[in-house]
Write a structure and sequence with these properties.
The structure is a single chain. The protein has three helices and five strands. Strands 1-2-3-5-4 form a five-stranded antiparallel β-sheet. A hairpin with a 4-residue loop joins strand 2 and strand 3. The mean pLDDT is 85.
């Protein structure tokens, strides 16, 4: 179709749709069915949209979970398009794991605090293990 492209990057389907009249462009990649999503996964997707997805986002449409990126078409540069494609691929591939577009974590969000707390816990666990070895 005019204004639409489909291709794969390392097996991941990418669809680009443009609408010149609306001055919009979308890059989307299907992840899987939304029918079986539990509340924890849905909640995690929303957290990621706030702090780890950068410009890409998770979305649900037609009972499918998508990684998506939307932008005004007229101001889209080649560099921004390339970055957007990478972000969509990374976000789709990280679903169920880090839920990240791979660029950065917004430190005011939940993910950074969780990771910080997990690192502290891991450090304490390692210290306990070390102390156990010393006391043997």
């Amino acid at each position: 179709a005019k204004g639409a492209w489909r291709f794969k990057i390392k097996g991941r389907l990418i669809i680009i749709i443009t609408d010149e009249k609306a001055n919009r462009m979308r890059i989307i990649s299907p992840i899987g069915s939304s029918k079986t999503l539990d509340k924890k996964v849905l909640y995690r997707m929303m957290q990621a949209n706030f702090d780890t997805s950068h410009d890409a986002r998770y979305a649900i449409a037609k009972e499918i979970v998508w990684a998506t990126f939307m932008h005004p078409l007229s101001s889209l540069s080649e560099k921004a398009l390339q970055s957007a494609i990478v972000q969509v691929v990374q976000l789709a591939n990280s679903f169920g794991k880090t839920y990240s577009s791979g660029l950065f974590i917004f430190k005011a969000g939940d993910t950074y605090q969780k990771q910080k707390s997990q690192k502290k816990k891991s450090k304490k666990d390692k210290q306990k293990e070390s102390n156990k070895k010393l006391s043997i």
